Amino acid sequence: MSLLTGQPQAHHATQIGMDVRGPLICAPESIRTVFIVTLAAASAPLCAGIVLFGWRAAVVAAICIGSCANIERLYYRVTRMPALMGRSHAYLTGVLLALTLPPTAPWYVPVVASAFAIIVGKAVFGGVGHFLWQPALVGRLAAAVLFAGAMNPEYWPVLAQDRLLWGDADKGRIVDDWRKWHGSCAPENADAFVSRRSDVVLSGLRPSKASYSALAYLPPPNELPKAPPAALGQLPSMGEMLMGTVPGNIGETCAIVIVVAGLYLIYRNYLKWQLPVAVLCSAAAVAAAAPVYLAGPDDVAIEVWWPVLHQEGEVALTYVMYRLLSGGIVLSAFFLAGESTSRPTGAGGQVIFGAGIGSLAMLLQLYVNTPIPAFMAVLAMNTLTPALDSLWRPRVLGRRRFEFLRRK
Amino acid sequence: MLLRQYGSFAGGIDLPDEKHSTLGMPIEPAARQGVLRVPLAPCAGPPARMLVPEGTRVSAGERIAAACGGVDVYAPCEGRIGKTVDVQVVSAVGVKHSPAIELVAVGQMAPIRLLVPVFDWRAASSREIRTSLAGGGLTTAKGHIEPLNIWVERGLRACCKCIIANVVEPQPYVTSDHRMLVENGAEVIRGLMIIAKALEVGQMLLAVDQRRVDQYRGLVGAARACNVAMVALPAKYPAGNDTLLVKVLHRRETPIGKETFDVGAAVIDASTCFAAYRWVACQSPQTARVVTVSGQGTMPRGNFWTPYGADCQSMLQEARGTMVIGGPMAPSYQADNAVVCAATDAVLNLKTPPATTATPCIRCGWCTDHCPARLNVKGISDAYELGKIDRARRLHAGACIECGVCSYVCPARLGLCERVVWIKRLLQQRPQQVRPQELHPEARP
Ligand code: SF4
Ligand code: SF4
């Protein structure tokens, strides 16, 4: 410690004070801001859903938001715990839940789903910041299990072009030809066309007696099967898939609006771009690589069709796009998987998380008959969040790469 | 001006600049002080030994205490020697109590004048300069305050390859080094060359902020004459941190628990260079420094040439708010009795933040994303709350560079920086074993 020895000055020059004070200025964004901005972004697809599915969607959304807020308040009143985070997170959960419900859900479905979302999804874990599974999806899963009939009808409505916003989604009529939404007029005594959802149509590619007749296509000998174009022919055009004028849950159909709102979240730094990109890329990769089984006309012979091996690349591309745009994958990628708390925090963990969601969602859509493949994939990967979080950490400043592998 | 573009570092944020109010204000001598309390032990080690009895009148620049392991103490301005009192010296690493000598009936501080060199330092050898650096009350100003000659000895032993003068000043409000460089840039550059000669290093860099490059154009000639390369760094906080500066400019990362000497780079600040030049070349001791007085609310703002021992609180006059010594981002310390010393680059008056109840972490990940040391900040904060020091050690809490970014960005307003810095200090002091019971009273065993 002396001039002569020139030792480093001792660190005991200062005692540990209890008075270390952090910075006195802070960024303007608080938790409340985060929730409200996410809520604003999530209301964009909700508005799109209300326009596309009429006032019934607005009612479902209103019930979701109102019951989420009230159930949360009631829960904290009954258990005498102080509500941790105002009501902004309850509103956010309500909006996210509304995005995932079908527009024709009867009034009790959103109430029960909200109760599950708030109590099972959030409160029992200790409230904001502590839950493991995305609460809105917990509510959606409960609704899918409890009201399997109401939540998974065979035919879903979409309003005719001249009945947007004010039409009644419950007054629907079956139409065969889907491709004419653009410029369509409402059928007599009805506001909506009803048809099967695109992922259900595509799942007809699986061998099943009910659907093979429509899809079966016996390829000429010595040629690769060409059946999927036949199935794709039953789907609306790609433009309509992007615009969202196809049957589906309230918030999941309008891909353009979801992507724009998601880009806003990325711009605000609430979402890392790696996560949606990982989800969409892995889903596309699985869709392109996974084989599809086709039923032959005689009910027994099963053809296997590999999308990537199809002669025309365009067909494979269209098929992959249809796969991506159906079944709520886009909504999951930008909103449900990306919500903070239930996703890993680091970029590396999020890539693994997103890849898991995308491939799992696509596999569920392809081979398992489930109404909510993407949402279930998100819930499944949420379970792994803590593990992924500790798996992937950036290298700390001053440590060498892979230092933990070196011998001390 | 050579404006080489260098790489950057991960993390960091864009801070509001907030410097406009004092950026253009020239350095003025501080207002006349009633009493100065000049610290006798600004560095670690025993206080300096008094050379003049109580009641003597001393003139400005007169030596009033001789070093015993620390530095000599000189009278900043003329006055009469009073009692010995106790003051607090605040540096970047903490608060230290020090005896101080009272100087009453103090005269007016003289403005900075250009001095005539009396010593041909360009022809002097490293040894001669080092001998000279031992006097003059020269200390370093960043991190631990230590005598400059001891710092140089350590640098010599570490065989430094380059010396970086850090004039980036990333913190909002603080403009003292900037004004020093604008008004006395040539002397700062010569001081840098003197220290480089003492350290026997060839490569000299002057790191400045990209936003202020226009105002340093006048220095190009002096820099070229001294063979100093000027480097403009992008305006990303905390670009001016010593460790990050070495990482960006020298491409070496400082291992945890080591200092920049260990990777062959010395980092010095503008006011020390200036003082070194004034002492070595002109025999004028270091008795004052430029202090920025600024902040939120009303107070006399400006860059003041302030004598050591001036009372920090009185510089803010009647301002209401929280007094912060140093920048507003780095961890600061409560000190009611603090006086200006070599490390006091700014005295700020900031709005006292409203007492908020803790909100839960929503795992947004921003603390880790923006942490320039890439730490798992939330994990360390949890370890602190649970009293698990070993877990914090495994998470490398010691790598924290004390920038305050984590607390700044956290939307839950958790006091992350305080906790990490607290644990870092604890690990530094007692690297071996810490029992949870010794921790903060909040800690659960
Ligand atoms: S942990 Fe340390 S280095 Fe990281 S942001 Fe916080 S204060 Fe800065
Ligand atoms: S910034 Fe705050 S809220 Fe976000 S993860 Fe870090 S500690 Fe949690």
Could you give a short description of this structure?
Chain A has 408 residues and is mainly alpha-helical. Helices cover 50% and strands 5% of the residues of chain A. Chain A has 2 domains: 31-151, no CATH class; 198-391, no CATH class.
Question: How does this structure look, described?
Answer:
The complex is a heterodimer of chains A (408) and B (445). With 408 residues, chain A is mainly α. Chain A has 2 domains: 31-151, no CATH class; 198-391, no CATH class. Helix content of chain A is 50%, strand content 5%. Chain A is built from 17 helices and 6 strands. Chain A has helices at 31-53, 55-78, 88-100, 108-122, 135-146, 148-151, 198-203, 209-215, 227-232, 238-243, 255-267, 274-289, 313-325, 329-336, 347-367, 373-383, 385-391; strands spanning 20-21, 156-159, 172-174, 192-195, 292-295, 302-305. Chain A has a 3-stranded mixed sheet with strand order 2-4-3, with no helix packed on it. In chain A, a hairpin with a 6-residue loop joins strand 5 and strand 6 (302-305). Chain A is globular. With 445 residues, chain B is α/β, with parallel strands linked by helices. Chain B folds into 2 domains: 1-31 and 108-353, no CATH class; 366-443, no CATH class. Chain B is built from 13 helices and 18 strands. Chain B has helices at 20-23, 126-133, 148-157, 176-199, 220-225, 242-250, 270-282, 312-315, 366-370, 377-386, 389-394, 405-409, 416-429; strands at 27-29, 35-39, 49-50, 57-58, 63-66, 73-74, 79-91, 94-104, 162-166, 203-209, 228-233, 265-269, 288-295, 302-307, 322-325, 332-333, 338-339, 346-350. A 5-stranded mixed sheet of chain B has the order 1-14-13-18-15. In chain B, strands 2, 4, 7, 8 and 17 form a 5-stranded mixed sheet that branches. In chain B, strands 11-10-9-12 form a 4-stranded parallel sheet, sandwiched between helices. In chain B, a hairpin with a 6-residue loop joins strand 5 and strand 6. In chain B, helix 10 crosses helix 13. In chain B, 59% of the residues are buried. The chains are: A mainly alpha (408), B alpha/beta (445). One iron/sulfur cluster binds next to helix 12 and helix 13 of chain B.
